[in-house]
Specification:
23% of the residues lie in helices and 34% in strands. The chain is of the alpha+beta class.
């Protein structure tokens, strides 16, 4: 594309407005072709300055949010430059203060109303031939003239703004868009985001669907959050939801439904209060099983012992516990589960202090010893199993080991949580054990902190409040809910559900679970909307969980044509591109006739080809090996890697978790440039767009009658901008590119650029 608009600043500031799908962002457009203090300077292409760092601090107290952003940029050009700073303001935002500093000096921005702002945006899009700004075209904006932008120098920008967040029911939303240019994201050298949330009422849920936000709770009314990334290419904006209330068991429902014909998608979280009287913490039984074989010697053993001490000391009053160590043989501290008290705590601490690493790995005997427990129906039984190796002593074959586990858990319904350390593991065995007992697995690399991982896990599962959970809906039809097997609910955690719904309207969620073997029933009002396009993160997260579940079935139980075909269908539709799904897609495409170089770029859309190039054979071979390793290898680094990646997909709660293995999808094009398959995929309005020749094509066109004529509109023409006026909501699709085919409100559109 000629004359691409490149944005100087990709720092973005947003005002959260519930029930409005609005973005906002600060950016600078460079006037590079002006001969600024340089009489003979040549005309220059438009550059995006390198962003060295971006630090975002979000301080929310009740409904008042103060956002402070500091960014450092570098101008590598050998001349001074001039630009204009723009800051779109969402409609309806209750803005209390907006301050800007450039290199330490405060500057005064000019506020431009929405009508004038729209003309500015259209002029920018027409001049620079890049539609990325169209999403902001209906909003007021601030602007600041910036000169000089010194050559070979850093520019430090600091913005502080204060807003009043809106609340609907119990739910509050905060939005901080990070990605201005959807098609040309520029890596941010170092990105840090910190959240400090305080409320007068109890905080129930803190959730980000876009970033993998680490959240720590500081009592009922305070939460802290953080996210860090280096060389960060943001693909989506930062969204935060939190709920406030006093319910013992709180629920939130989010829906997405593109039209009245297609199925809708929903996300629901169910969260117990941190401190509760009705949902008292359940008394539990737990056995810690630690691998003490020779390979655990050194720092691994030291960390494991410290983690075991932490877990024992955090046991609740009236819990019962035991410790099992294993190497060549297995032994337990107590002959049977013992109540947690001062005496047993002291004995456990002393026992842990004597543990040393030596000998082989007798997993069979260790599990037999841990599972030789008569279950108490009033107490859930958990086994925490920690190992860094494969079975080498006793029964070493996977199938007999699993059969033994299956026999043993019949008497206690144990849930076995596995912790695999390093790569010298039988991940297939550990994953089957957790799947068999409806628990989950954790893998810890040599670089990670075992003590931190294990203590973090135990903090989550130490206080169960509801076990043996089941759910049903009245008044609305739902299907394919994930997680497929519902886990127990623990204090300080949420049960996060993703599913689809077939009809719409008001209904009831019926939830059942056990508290100390007493069946408890809960009923919640729900409303599945007839049309809701705001929460477009839900379809991809649902698809990630569905694909993760299917890939796990392939990995653990073998491949079938039905499962492969569904993975291909889902990966295409929702843009879930991983080393495993992309191989299946390309394999599927091998039977198709790809478009030739001479094809008419304005012809009717064909099935998007994920990859076409000189090195297709090499790439297919490369990712084919990845798929085969996932499918066939039971032990070693590849097995551990695929288990971790598929587990993340199967439990994804944020967009950042849906497409693991991106770094392994690179290839070299005909010109010798490094590319990635993921460059050919974008997401908008809940579905995927694939690059097919010159055009970005909407995956929904495959479901549409392509014999119907599409409305063809030249990019940046008067008809193009009139289309925006006549089709509200189309802006986010137009922003994807100057050559794009898509479906909107039941009609086909083709936007084309005569310059390409």
């Amino acid at each position: 594309m000629k004359g691409n608009l490149k944005l100087l600043f990709i720092f973005i500031f947003s005002f959260a407005v519930f029930n409005l799908n609005l973005d906002a962002g600060g950016f600078v457009i460079l006037e590079n072709n002006k001969k600024i203090r340089c009489g003979e300077c040549p005309r220059m292409p438009f550059y995006t300055l390198e962003q060295k760092s971006q630090n975002v601090n979000i301080d929310i107290q009740n409904l008042r949010a103060i956002t402070t952003v500091e960014q450092t940029f570098y101008n590598p050009n050998n001349r001074k430059m001039e630009g204009e700073f723009f800051f779109p303001v969402p409609k309806g935002a209750v803005l209390q203060k907006f301050l800007v500093w450039i290199n330490g000096s405060e500057v005064e921005p000019e506020l431009v109303d929405a009508n004038k702002a729209r003309k500015i945006y259209q002029d920018v899009v027409s001049k620079y031939m890049d539609p990325a700004l169209l999403e902001y075209s209906t909003q007021d904006l601030y602007k600041i003239k910036i000169f000089p932008i010194d050559s070979n120098a850093k520019q430090i920008f600091k913005i502080t703004y204060i807003e009043v967040l809106k609340k609907e029911g119990k739910l509050v939303e905060y939005n901080y868009p990070v990605n201005i240019s959807k098609r040309h994201p520029v890596p941010i050298g170092s990105f840090d985001l910190k959240l400090n949330l305080r409320c007068d009422e109890n905080i129930q849920t803190v959730y980000s669907p876009s970033y993998n936000l680490e959240v720590g709770r500081k009592g009922e009314k305070k939460a802290l959050g953080g996210f860090h990334a280096d060389n960060f290419k943001p693909k989506t904006d930062f969204k935060l939801y939190f709920t406030i209330g006093k319910e013992e068991l709180g629920t939130n429902l989010f829906t997405y439904k593109y039209n009245n014909v297609e199925d809708g998608y929903f996300y629901m979280d169910i969260t117990p209060a941190l401190e509760t009287e009705e949902l008292e913490v359940i008394e539990k039984d737990i056995t810690f099983v630690l691998d003490c074989s020779g390979s655990m010697s050194g720092e691994k053993m030291d960390q494991a012992k410290r983690a075991m001490l932490y877990c024992v000391r955090k046991l609740n009053e009236n819990d019962r516990f035991n410790l099992v160590k294993f190497s060549t043989e297995a032994e337990s501290l107590f002959k049977e589960l013992q109540p947690f008290n001062a005496e047993t705590k002291e004995r456990a601490e002393s026992y842990i202090g004597t543990l040393v690493a030596r000998g082989g790995t007798n997993i069979d005997e260790a599990l037999d010893l841990a599972l030789d427990v008569e279950g108490d129906p009033q107490r859930p039984y958990m086994v925490v199993f920690i190992t860094d190796g494969k079975p080498t002593i006793g029964v070493t074959q996977e199938l007999p080991l699993l059969e033994s586990v299956q026999r043993n858990i019949k008497k206690n319904n144990a849930k076995i949580f596995t912790f695999g350390i390093g790569d010298d593991l039988n991940a297939h065995l550990l994953d089957n054990i957790t799947d068999l007992t409806n628990a989950y697995r954790t893998y810890i690399s040599a670089e990670e902190d075992l003590e931190l991982k294990l203590s973090s896990f135990y903090n989550k599962v130490s206080s169960p409040v509801l076990t043996d959970i089941s759910i049903s809906f009245n008044g609305v039809e739902v299907d394919r809910i994930y997680p497929y097997k519902l886990p127990d609910l623990y204090q300080g955690t949420s049960l996060q559900l993703f599913g689809r719904y077939n009809n719409w309207g008001e209904g009831k969620l019926l939830l059942e679970g056990k508290i100390n073997d007493e069946l408890r029933k809960f009923e919640f009002d729900v409303n599945f909307e007839k049309r809701s396009e705001k929460n477009d993160f839900i379809p991809q997260l649902w698809a990630s969980r569905r694909i993760g579940f299917l890939l796990d079935q392939i990995r653990l139980n073998g491949e079938s044509d039905e499962i492969k075909d569904e993975v291909v269908l889902l990966a295409r539709k929702y843009g879930i591109i991983t080393p495993y799904t992309s191989f299946l897609i390309i394999e599927d495409e091998s039977e198709m006739e790809p478009p030739s170089e001479g094809d008419d770029p304005t012809a009717n859309p064909s099935l998007p080809i994920l990859f076409k190039g000189a090195n297709q054979e090499a790439l297919v071979k490369k990712i084919g090996k990845e798929y085969d390793k996932m499918k066939n290898e039971r032990e070693g680094a590849a097995s551990v890697q695929s288990s971790k990646e598929i587990m993340n997909m199967n439990a994804a709660t944020s967009i950042s978790e849906i497409t693991p293995g991106q770094s392994r999808l690179s290839y070299t094009d005909k010109k010798g440039n490094n590319k990635s398959i993921t460059d050919k995929v974008m997401l908008a309005q809940g579905r995927a767009f694939f690059k097919n020749g010159l055009f970005w094509e909407d995956i929904k066109l495959q479901e549409f009658d392509t014999n119907l004529n599409s409305k063809k509109v030249e990019f940046a023409s008067s008809e193009y901008f009139l289309l925006m006026e006549n089709e509200p909501g189309i802006e986010s699709l137009l922003a994807l590119g100057a050559n794009i085919r898509f479906l909107f409100n039941g009609k086909m559109f083709e936007i084309y650029s005569v310059e390409d």
